[in-house]
């Protein structure tokens, strides 16, 4: 049975990824702050632990679950949006939260992949399409964190990174989630990408149904309900 390790399997994207891979009879290991009832195994990490401790927790537990086997895919679906410019009252808080949600989760996922991903497996990290255009003055913390994730994808795909297999970045614009709809009720939902569509593409890459280019940042562009990948 093929195995996928999902970091952040409780969020909107992570839940869709867990359900999609389960639907195709993969063994799903969820790494998150809480357990997923849809996953086959759960590794709970602490919100209060530092990056090193969180990574050690995940690596030790994954070793016990996998035993002598390796994972076919490692997917980091974690990351939350944080707004605010440098003058915002909670600017530093937004930077700190973005680093934890996007950079730390991607780093732990990379560490997991370096030890437990098959040589021909897939490591996918979640970035943001908005960051590919340059600066993000209204969401500086979020932008700097996602820019770091994009750089991580490029570095991990290179020889000597410590990770074998293919490494890709997933760059949505806005994911269609209940929280986003509640926060932006007047938005054009037809331009938002369903989480299930991103999950389906991740599965297609992981299962070898469609090829992917290691080191590439794939943009998910949705218009009038139709999604294309660039």
From TrEMBL:
The keyword Nuclease does not apply. GO terms for biological process: L-phenylalanine catabolic process; tetrahydrobiopterin biosynthetic process. Residues 4-93 form the NAD-dependent epimerase/dehydratase domain. One of its GO terms (cellular component) is cytoplasm. Its EC number is 1.5.1.34. GO terms for molecular function: 6,7-dihydropteridine reductase activity; NADH binding; NADPH binding. Keywords: NADP, Oxidoreductase, Tetrahydrobiopterin biosynthesis. It comes from the Eukaryota. Homodimer. PANTHER family: DIHYDROPTERIDINE REDUCTASE. Belongs to the short-chain dehydrogenases/reductases (SDR) family. This is Dihydropteridine reductase. It comes from Coemansia erecta.
């Amino acid at each position: 049975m093929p195995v996928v390790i999902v970091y952040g399997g409780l969020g909107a994207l992570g839940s869709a990824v867990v359900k999609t891979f389960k639907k195709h009879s993969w063994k799903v290991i969820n790494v998150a702050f809480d357990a997923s009832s849809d996953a086959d195994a759960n590794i709970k990490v602490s919100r209060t632990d530092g990056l090193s401790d969180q990574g050690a927790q995940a690596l030790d537990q994954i070793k016990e679950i996998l035993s002598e086997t390796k994972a076919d895919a490692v997917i980091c679906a974690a990351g939350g949006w944080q707004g605010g410019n440098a003058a915002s009252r909670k600017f530093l808080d937004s930077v700190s939260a973005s680093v934890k949600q996007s950079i730390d989760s991607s780093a732990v996922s990379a560490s997991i992949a370096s030890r437990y991903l098959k040589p021909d497996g897939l490591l996918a990290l979640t970035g943001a399409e908005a960051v590919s255009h340059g600066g993000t003055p209204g969401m500086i913390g979020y932008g700097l964190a996602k820019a770091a994730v994009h750089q991580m994808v490029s570095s991990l795909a290179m020889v000597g990174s410590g990770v074998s297999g293919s490494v890709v970045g997933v760059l949505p614009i806005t994911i269609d989630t209940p929280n986003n709809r509640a926060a932006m009720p007047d938005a054009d939902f037809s331009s938002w990408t369903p989480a299930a569509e991103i999950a389906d593409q991740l599965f297609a890459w992981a299962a070898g149904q469609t090829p992917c280019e290691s080191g590439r940042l794939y943009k998910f562009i949705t218009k009038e309900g139709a999604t294309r990948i660039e």
